[in-house]
Design brief:
By secondary structure, this protein is mainly alpha-helical. It has a domain at about 40-68. The chain has 2 helices and 2 strands. The chain has helices spanning about 25-35, 40-65, and strands spanning about 1-5, 20. Helix 1 packs antiparallel against helix 2 (about 40-65). It is elongated, with a radius of gyration of 14 Å. The model has no long low-confidence stretch (mean pLDDT about 80).
Length: about 70
């Protein structure tokens, strides 16, 4: 699974990570990680949201491939 993180200057926070799910194994890892992240601090929340976005994109692409 690819992850992109853009770091701000020392005085600023980083942008949320961007995950790209490339395989079914990545998908399984992402869904397990979402379930495991129960602590809701700022960085955990951003990670969960980024993972959920990646899972949504993967599921949409998979559904489209299965319909063709």
């Amino acid at each position: 699974m690819k992850t992109t993180v853009k770091h701000g200057p020392d005085s600023c926070r980083s942008d949320p990570p961007i995950f790209t799910i490339e395989t079914i194994e990545d998908y399984a890892l992402a869904t397990r990680r979402i379930k495991a992240l129960s602590v809701q601090d700022g960085s955990s929340h951003r990670e969960i949201m980024a993972l959920k976005d990646a899972v949504r994109i993967w599921e949409k692409a998979t559904q489209a491939r299965n319909q063709t």
